[in-house]
Amino acid sequence: MTKITIGKPADKARLLHTLVLGFSADPVARWASPDAATYMDRRHEFFDAFGGAAFEHGTAFVADDGAAVATWLPPGVEPDGEVMAAIMDEQTPPHRKAEMDDLVEQMDRFHPKEPVWYLPLIAADPAHRGRGLGTALMEAAIAVIDADGRPAWLESSNPRNIPLYQRFGFETVGEIRTETSPPLTPMLRRGKR
User: Fold this and answer.
1) Cβ–Cβ contacts within 10 Å for residue 129, how many?
2) What residues does the N-acetyltransferase domain cover (predicted)?
3) 3-state SS class at 185
């Protein structure tokens, strides 16, 4: 049986390792940082800016002491876009910078204007994949989200994960992509209010 806990701020540095490993073969993450050394260099800092605020808000869900992690940002809490942009500007290959800017602009256009629960990051350590950890993380988070009643939002960077999200009521609302990027799939789960 998978044990789900809430990641504390003191756990964040350790649990970001799980996310970095989990996204190491992610289509969009590796399109943005195709060089392995570049990907590893500041990815912890990037993921902290993207979803690390969940640790301060009690909304970082952790499976089996770090085998998998999901960082949910509650309504009104946003990623640190300035830090993310600076890191991506440094790490994105020069020939992809215009496309990266386009990808981010499309993400911003799709993102709901109303306050939503936002899932920037969910991943399992590759050594622990295939154990249902993603399902367990989603079940725990959806219980909290349903109690709140507001909508939830994510962009799936891996098509293989879309069926998982659909099982939890997320609906595809479009596609985000550039000329050479893999697709990002924006998905919305309507509120229960």
Assistant:
1) 14
2) 26-192
3) strand
